[in-house]
Write a structure and sequence with these properties.
274 residues; alpha/beta; DNA polymerase, domain 1; five-stranded mixed barrel; two-stranded parallel ribbon; 8 helices; Thermonuclease; RuvA_2-like; Endo/Exo/Phosphatase_dom_1
Amino acid sequence: MKRTLILALAGVVALSCSARELDRLDGAKLAAYGGNDGDSFKTLHNGKEQIIRLYYVDCPETRATTEADNRRVREQARHFGLSDKNQIFRYGKAATAFTQKQLSKPFTVHTAYADALGRSKGGRVYGFVTTADGKDLAALLVENGYARAYGFRRALPDGTPQKEAAARLTDKETVAALKRKGIWAQTDPDRLVELRAASRLEEAELNAIDTPAHTGILKINTATEDELQTINGVGPATARRIVELRPFKNADDLGRLPRLPAKTKTNIIERVAF
């Protein structure tokens, strides 16, 4: 079955979420949780626990337990120009420690409670986090080389439009790379072009594969990434984006998926129930 691996090597552009107003949660604290990492962590505010997934950024993974995870780690390594994927895990742990340090004092969360799904028990929601000294955590992660500009977006709490906010963060990523901050210190500049070309080659190869497995109807709002990839034309990146943007109410809702080919959209509609 044909798969398409859509990789945005300088940062993925995801659609902004709904226009629901952001709630401001002052005095939030970092809660102990084994699943905490650089861009996703459990918070405690007024006695209520909530897992927050940061908008705009993607930190290196800390582990890989599925084939989809392995593909994701491979893609991250190529983005950062790394030959050794174990560097992803190393800097994933460093990003986790960096976030824990930044959130050692009470902080502010802005969230509209948009579902970020993922594998965390109890679910998680997208949010912006401002540290005790008034700095945006996502920007700090990118500036210090612990994350890339990538992922789900919306206007910032201060009203900055998502397009401008994304552009600024992408520029911060470029500066971090030039300064060889964090994970960028491990980048092999002589192989960066080659490694990113390998991602494009993998995309083409996956697109040429035809594996006629799993032809049944899938529930789009509960299917796993691996299950979604059994749909003709849906590769790892598209499957992940579907998971990030769920729930989908109907076929028209698929328009929220950026740059989705018409044929792939038709294939999805034929294979899923909403």
